[in-house]
Inverse folding.
């Protein structure tokens, strides 16, 4: 699967759970790798890009989560 | 000019013989607005008997999931300069060796961008910069990273590994603590900066069982140097210690936890088979005693400060492992442990708590380590291992 596609899947997953459940990095890795039938390392790698581009950010609320950055 | 506050309660903490953090904050407060308001808010906390810091949230440096700890005042109108007062963790140097030139440079930068207050080092092992605003985070990170520094760990991630000074200055060290610390830090950059664990994970490496960095109480994984051979005894030096007034029976023999030493006034004998490598005798009689033979480390897992089930000390998982670069055997073992934790750990559950919840048997089976007598949870208690039905049928 193309990395772009994996990135879209990750973003869609985070977007969908916004306001309902905060996702941890490992939740994303487990869910997306199972759904897309790819390795966790591939998911990790795509997630890395999304974070480095600022599309997603890490937040901390008693534990570390991955979220969409707040609109200014 | 920074604001000035009356601080009668904090002033009490300047009395007495100890160094006082209040005195240090006051020095910074004379020329720094953030430090001044910090002092004002702290005095109010003491007066009202409650804390006014909020924490967590969305704050950090692009690309990093940790290294910046969000802190906000809950009284931003009253203390505007500490409305944001974030802590920055800088990955410390193995063994905490710095040149004074570098320390001065860091302090100058911190005076410019932050409160001027530092903490060297926090219990985490990081070099801590205390208090700056959200806008200053990216600029200060740019200044530090351009000089070769990096952020430390925070959140549900690998925390900045730390170690004792080891072979750099200490003859007791059985392993190269500094190299191990540096190597693990480099190996696991992603695990440090991109939090993906159920909760925090700390490595601390001590060269011997004296454990100067208290790894046994403060690290999820303690790496403690040890040896396989005997303790070589130089009887002439033993005699010198005795001549200089050491009561060898009381101070050494009777204090040996495994009772494996004897002394008849002339010769000190050690039954090495029963020695548990606690370092007591070697630390007391350095000139007379020396560890010999193969060197390596004992790997312990599980310590943490009080949380859900109270505080715990690490316990032995691997009694002896060679610790030589590139440390592949050790790293593979750790990866297995993380896999177990990733699979079963709940949010905010430390690996030690998980092992207690799931049982040592399941943990050892998963990581592929045989149960061994050294894995006792504490002395004179039952081994922390239970047999399966299948084992019993054998
Ligand atoms: C009402 C009867 C008994 C009670 C309430 C009792 C209770 C205990 C307790 C509380 C311990 C300490 C456990 C620990 O260290 O956590 C212990 C240890 C022990 N008990 Fe008993 N016990 C009883 C009878 C017996 C009998 C009849 C025997 C042997 C025939 C026995 C043999 C032992 C042994 C060998 C230990 C271990 C001692 C050690 O760790 O050095 N007990 N018992
Ligand atoms: C129904 C029979 C028995 C019962 C209920 C019993 C009970 C116990 C208990 C409660 C302990 C303490 C465990 C602890 O420290 O946590 C213990 C330990 C011990 N038992 Fe038994 N026991 C039995 C039979 C035996 C027999 C037959 C022997 C030897 C012939 C024996 C030898 C020992 C020894 C040496 C320990 C100490 C182990 C250690 O230091 O950790 N026990 N037993
Ligand atoms: S832990 Fe042991 S090796 Fe390390 S500095 Fe202390 S005494 Fe030396
Ligand atoms: S190292 Fe500890 S257990 Fe070993 S002989 Fe010395 S005092 Fe005894």
């Amino acid at each position: 699967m193309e990395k772009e596609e994996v990135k879209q899947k990750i973003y869609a997953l985070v977007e969908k759970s916004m306001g309902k459940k905060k996702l941890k990095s490992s939740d994303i890795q487990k869910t997306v790798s199972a759904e897309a039938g790819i390795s966790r390392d591939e998911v990790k790698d795509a997630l890395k890009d999304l974070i480095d581009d600022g599309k997603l950010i890490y937040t901390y609320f008693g534990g570390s989560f991955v979220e969409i950055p707040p609109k200014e | 000019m920074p604001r000035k506050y009356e601080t009668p309660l904090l002033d009490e903490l300047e009395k007495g013989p100890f160094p006082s953090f209040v005195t240090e904050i006051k020095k910074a407060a004379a020329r720094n607005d953030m430090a001044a308001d910090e002092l004002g808010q702290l005095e109010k906390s003491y007066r009202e008997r409650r804390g006014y810091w909020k924490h967590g949230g969305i704050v950090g440096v692009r690309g990093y999931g940790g290294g910046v700890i969000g802190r906000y005042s809950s009284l931003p109108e009253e203390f505007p300069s500490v409305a944001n007062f974030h802590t920055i963790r800088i990955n410390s140097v193995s063994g905490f060796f710095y040149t004074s030139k570098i320390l001065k440079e860091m302090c100058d930068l911190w005076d410019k961008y932050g409160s001027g207050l530092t903490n060297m080092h926090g219990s985490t092992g990081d070099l801590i910069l205390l208090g700056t605003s959200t806008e200053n985070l990216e600029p200060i990170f740019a200044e530090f990273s351009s000089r070769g520094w990096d952020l430390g760990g925070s959140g549900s991630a690998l925390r900045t590994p730390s170690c004792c000074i080891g072979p750099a200055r200490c003859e007791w060290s059985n392993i190269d603590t500094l190299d191990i610390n540096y190597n693990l830090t480099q190996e696991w950059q992603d695990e440090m900066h991109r939090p993906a664990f159920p909760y925090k994970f700390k490595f601390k490496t001590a060269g011997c069982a004296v454990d100067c960095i208290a790894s046994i109480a403060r690290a999820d994984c303690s790496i403690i140097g040890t040896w396989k051979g005997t303790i070589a005894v130089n009887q002439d030096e033993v005699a010198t210690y005795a001549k200089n007034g050491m009561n060898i029976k009381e101070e050494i023999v009777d204090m040996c936890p495994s009772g494996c030493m004897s002394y008849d006034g002339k010769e000190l004998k050690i039954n090495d088979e029963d020695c548990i490598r606690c370092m007591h005798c070697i630390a007391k009689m350095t000139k007379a005693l020396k560890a010999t033979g193969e060197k390596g480390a004992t790997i312990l897992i599980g310590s943490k400060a009080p949380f859900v089930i109270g505080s715990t000390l690490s316990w032995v998982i691997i009694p002896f492992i060679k610790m030589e670069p590139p440390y592949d055997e050790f790293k593979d073992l750790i990866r297995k442990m993380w896999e177990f934790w990733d699979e079963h750990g709940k949010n905010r559950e430390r690996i030690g708590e998980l092992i207690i919840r799931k049982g040592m048997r399941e943990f050892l089976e998963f990581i592929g380590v045989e149960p061994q007598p050294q894995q006792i949870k504490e002395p004179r208690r039952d081994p922390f291992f239970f047999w399966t039905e299948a084992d019993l049928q054998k």
Notes: The radius of gyration of chain B is 25 Å.
